[in-house]
Amino acid sequence: MEVSRSQPNPSTEYVMGHDDRERRRLSLQASIINPFMERLLIRAGISAGMRVFDVGCGVGEVSILAARLVGPHGEVTGVDMDDGALAIARRKTEELGLTQAKFVHNDVLSYQPAGPVDAVIGRHILIHTRDPLGLLQSGFSILNSGGVAVFQEFDFSVVHAGYPESPLRERTMKVFRDFFAAATHGNIGTRLYHLLLEAGFPFPECWAEYPIGGGADSPLYELFAESLRSILPRAEAMGLARSEDVAIDTLAERLKAEALELKSAFPMPAMIGCFGRKP
Hints:
This protein is α/β, with parallel strands linked by helices. The protein has helices at residues 20-44, 61-70, 83-96, 132-142, 167-183, 188-198, 220-237, 243-246, 251-262, and strands at 51-55, 75-80, 101-105, 117-123, 143-155, 205-209, 212-213, 266-267, 270-277. The strands form two sheets. It has a seven-stranded mixed β-sheet, with helices on both faces. It has a two-stranded antiparallel ribbon with strand order 7-8.
């Protein structure tokens, strides 16, 4: 079943769910992709003493990266609607002694910090936001002159096939591609450059990058399986997958066995990282 990728559903919400399994999946995902986000933040100039607003902070992984960069004289405020995720974020920052990070339970589209900030950041939030341009425009409005917006997003319309061809992986990825095209903004990564321009940021800088894993110890098999588990009830309701075909409880092991047998690369979807400065 092919689904149009050009008209995402305007009433988007966080489609992965809010439970302990999903919060664990977010931490697993972060363990793989945090180095990419950290390099993006450094490229964008996040540095000591800055005030940073993290939009849709989840379990706080990006907030922690930013808090380390801004240091004790900076400040990071993370906002999210998931109380359970925020509890994890607070516990992590307390354990790490990052007192410069704080977290607020609120809607990312309506919350406004107390004053202007030096940076607005977010990872994999615009794909779930019903009005991504509106969120970027709101970010523009709260930035100081010279402040920077930094966002990193998956793009499920840009998926690097493994080699040799891995049929199970490709069938699994097709569910992701069709689901995010229909349920959210599946091509949001490629749209980032245009959206930043529309929001008022001249000449955004963007990169596409993603991990390619493989081998017996790769965490990507579990990440793919747990990510599919999170969306499977909705994908099934939309006619994009059937539970009996997916066999979710054994999917990670079967993905691993296929990759090892074929000696195949296992790429993640493209991640596009962009930043733009307010004049």
